Amino acid sequence: MIVYPNAKINLGLNILRKRDDGYHDISSVFYPVKECVDILEIIKSDTFEFTKSGIEIPDGENLCAKAWKLLHTDFGIGNVKIHLHKQIAIGAGLGGGSSDGSFTLKSLNELFDLNLNNKELEKYALLLGADCPFFIDNTPKLVEGIGEKMTSIDLDLSDYEIRFINPEIHISTKEAFSVVVPETSEKSVEELIKLDVKEWKGKLKNDFEDSVFEKYPQLEKIKEDLYNEGAVYASMSGSGSVLFSINLI
Question: 25 an active-site residue?
Answer without folding.
Answer: no
